[in-house]
Amino acid sequence: MAPRRAAPEGSMPPPSRAPSPPIDQIDEAPFFDSVDELQQHGINMQDILKLKSAAINTVSGVVMTTRRQLLKIKGMSEAKVEKIKEAAQKITGSSFATGVEVQDRRRRVLCISTGSKSVDSILGGGLMSQSITEVYGEFRTGKTQLAHTMCVVAQLPSDLGGASGKVAYIDTEGTFRPDRIRSIADRFGVDGSMALENILYARAFNSEHQMELINECSMRFAEDKDFRLIIVDSIMALFRVDYSGRGELSERQQKVRTETSGGSQRTPTKIPSWHRCFQN
Q1: Other Cβ atoms within 10 Å of 73 Cβ, number
Q2: Which of 26, 133, 174, 194 falls 20 to 30 Å from 168 in CA-CA distance?
Q3: What is the DSSP letter of 91?
Q4: CA–CA separation, 269 vs 260, rounded Å?
Q5: Distance (Å, rounded) from C-alpha 136 to C-alpha 4?
Q6: C-alpha 221: how far from its chain's center?
Q7: CA-CA distances (angstroms) from residue 13 to 126, 183, 243?
Q8: What is the 3-state secondary structure (H, E, C) of 119-167?
Q9: Model confidence pLDDT, tens digit, residues 172-230
Q10: How far is it, in rounded angstroms, from Cα 235 to Cα 255?
Q11: CB 153 within 8 A of CB 114
Q12: By the 8 A CB rule, do 278 and 232 touch?
C-alpha cells in the first residue's frame, strides 16, 4: 500500500497543469490487456510463452511490434504471426478514437512532483506519467538525488503530488542508497521501511543485463498494476563501457534507441502506464 500522511502547510507548489485526479476517482479498467488474453482468441499457450520470452507481455505490445520482429522469435512462422496479429487486433479494436475518448484516456495521466517547488514550476507541475523523461547534467548536479526523491514522492497520494504506487529502480553505477531513501521519507513524513518495501531494485552490470532487467520489468508490471514509475540511473553508463570508440558508435546508438523507443518488441513502451525516468 502507498504510504500516506497529512500535507504540511506549503509543502507542495500549486501546479500550473491540472492536478492529478485522486486514484480512487480514476477508472479502474486496465491500461492494457495481458498477452494471455490471446488464448481466448485461438492462440495456443506455447506461442504466448514465446511472446513472453521476447518481452512481449501485453496485447498492445503485439500490436506495436512489427511482423518482421515477430518472425525473429524462435518458432514463429508467417502463418502464426498473422494469426497472432489478427487476434491482437480483435482485442484492441480500432486504433482510431474520438477526441472525447482521447480526453478520457488523458485523465489517466498523473503529474508526479519532483519534490522541488522550483523544478515543478519549470516543468508545469512535475513529471507526467505515460512518458519518458531524460535527466542529464554534469557530475554531482543532483541527478541521482532526484531519482531517490522520485522513489518516495511517487508513492505519496495524488493530493500530495504523488501517484500512490510502487517504483522500479535499475541501478547501473551502484549509487542507490537505502539510507538516502529513509532520510527523504522522513522529510515527507513517510515510514522509511514502507518506502523501501515499495521500491523494486536491481543492479545492472552490463548493457545486455540492463536490457534484460527492463524486459523483466515489463513482465512484472503486466502482472502488478501498482507500479507507477521506473528509473534507470544511468541509462548510458554501461553502453559507454560496452561500446567504445567511433567504430561502435552506430551500434551503441541503435541499442539505446531500442531501449527507449517504441520500435522493437524489447522496449518498455509495451506497458503504456509506466513513467520512465532515464538518467544520463
Answers
A1: 17
A2: 26
A3: H
A4: 8
A5: 31
A6: 9
A7: 10, 21, 42
A8: HHHHHCCCEECCCEEEECCCCCCCHHHHHHHHHHHCCCCHHHCCCCCEE
A9: 999 999 999 999 999 999 999 999 999 999 999 999 999 889 888 888 887 888 898 99
A10: 11
A11: yes
A12: yes
41 DSSP 8-state letter: G
Distance CA 33, CA 92 (A): 8
The answer to whether the pTM exceeds 0.90 is: no
H or E, element range at 228? strand 227-233
Cα distance between residue 200 and residue 229, in whole Å:
10
Residue 81 has pLDDT above 90, yes or no: yes
What are the residues whose beta carbons fall under 8 Å from the beta carbon of 82, sequence distance 6 or more?
Answer: 67
Give the burial class of 34: count Cβ atoms within 10 A of its Cβ; 0-12 exposed, 13-18 middle, 19 or more buried.
Answer: middle
CA distance 151 to 145: 10
pLDDT one-digit tens code per residue, 214-239: 888 888 887 888 898 999 998 888 88
Among candidates 124, 164, 194, which has minimal Cα distance to 25?
Answer: 164
127 - beta bridge partners? 112
Question: Within 10 A of 108 (CB to CB), how many other CB atoms are there?
Answer: 16
